[in-house]
Amino acid sequence: MTRQTIQTDKAPAAVGTYSQAVKVGNTVYISGQLGFDPDTMELREGFKAQAEQVFENIKAICEAAGGSLNDVVKFNVSLTDLSDFAVLNEVFVANLSEPYPARAAVQVAALPKGGVVEIESILYIE
């Protein structure tokens, strides 16, 4: 199988030694996305705004890979405060339709650059 790096200017540039996403066969592995505005590289203010921006970033990378949010089969969510879980669910409902992908969510002590939510994704494109 071939390995292809996915990159788009519509999502934040990598802030370390990683790619926005890597496609292997029909599977795309999207690196964890924080709530950075891709134009300013500044974090949005507050949990909900960051979570919404994360989805915009993931959507842009999905599209650059030839897919969409509907092709995501798994989300891994890290948040710095589990009390934001209900708001997280609202953002998921606003961006996805049933059947929903698999998902894991864990509380972490800290995230890069002071972010409050980071989401990585796996999508399958036929």
UniProtKB/TrEMBL annotation:
InterPro entries, sorted: RidA (IPR006056), RidA_CS (IPR019897), RutC-like_sf (IPR035959), YjgF/YER057c/UK114 (IPR006175)
Lineage top rank: taxon: Bacteria
Specify one Pfam family. Ribonuc_L-PSP
Recorded hits in SUPFAM superfamilies, A to Z, give: YjgF-like
**Family the entry assigns:** Belongs to the RutC family.
Indicate what this protein is called per its UniProt record.
RidA family protein
Source organism (scientific name): Psychrobacter proteolyticus
